[in-house]
Amino acid sequence: MNNDDFLCFSRREAIFGAVCAASACVTLPSFAEDVVAPEVKPAGQLVSTEKVAALLRAVPTFSIVDERGVPYMVVGEDAKVTCYFFTDYTEAKRILSAARRSADKAIKQAKKDPEQSSEDLTNPWLEARISTVPLDFAATLVSRTMFGGGIRRSGGNYFQVASSQKDIEDALAITGKEDLTEGKVPLFYMEHFEFRNGDTPLYFSRGQLEKAFRKENPGEKLPEVKVSELFAVLLEMVRPDGTDTDLQKLVFVPLPESLTKAKQCQKEGGKASPFVVGERN
């Protein structure tokens, strides 16, 4: 892995299709903290698709849905109608709050226009809630609309995994770039930093990585923080001609508060579906 992975993402859909194959029928929600994954993998593939799915399944994402679990979609930076799966609950909450304020402002302005009928105007975001689904489910929806004509089957809707603004800013500071293409998810790591079991952790937050290093290595100078990209890493893990055995030791580490917030979302959602595919607000 290197910083170039953050900028280059151009593998064929046949390779990426393997990422979502094992998670296409995932039961929601699931956030196992100690996932045991099968080790069966196709010849030449460094990491089994089942193991990749299990690693992703341990990471919660957060989306904005209505009471039934139908997602709210917005026009993204690329002018596509998009649903976002946030890696950080706080970012999802910030976006929802901003959407409510924006709608309230628009309604207030509309009521000032005597030529418009605004008596029945209501804020569509008032009934919204934050729901949670595992990252493997989110990545499956992303892949199906990115490759192989899946956008037609999803009714023209797009899906993106989104990092918090702070994580994006941290990634750009490391790479020296001015902007990040929408849909790319930075992962932070340090060379030679491993868990005691030999796993190499990839973090969704720079601050979380640095805190983990200090905990494991008190008093030591922080090594250089590097950044890769989620989907670029996944493609390398499942590519049939892969040779980098270090990929077999990678694990994705969710934000600690994400696990707590995921349980909170599940409780607040009750028996309602966490996410309805095929409909949109």
Would you spell out the secondary-structure blueprint of this structure?
Blueprint: H1 13-21, H2 49-57, E1 60-65, E2 74-75, E3 81-86, H3 89-111, E4 129-134, H4 135-146, H5 150-153, E5 158-162, H6 165-175, E6 186-189, E7 200-203, H7 206-216, E8 226-229, H8 230-238, E9 250-253, H9 256-269
Parallel strand pairs: 3-5, 7-9
Antiparallel strand pairs: 1-4, 2-3, 6-8
Helix pairs in contact: 1-2, 1-4, 2-4
Brief account:
The chain is of the alpha/beta class and 281 residues long. It has helices spanning 13-21, 49-57, 89-111, 135-146, 150-153, 165-175, 206-216, 230-238, 256-269, and strands at 60-65, 74-75, 81-86, 129-134, 158-162, 186-189, 200-203, 226-229, 250-253.
Largest sheet: 3 strands, mixed
Uncertain runs: 3-40
The proportion of residues forming helix, as a percent range, comes to 25-40%
Output the helix-strand order: HHEEEHEHHEHEEHEHEH
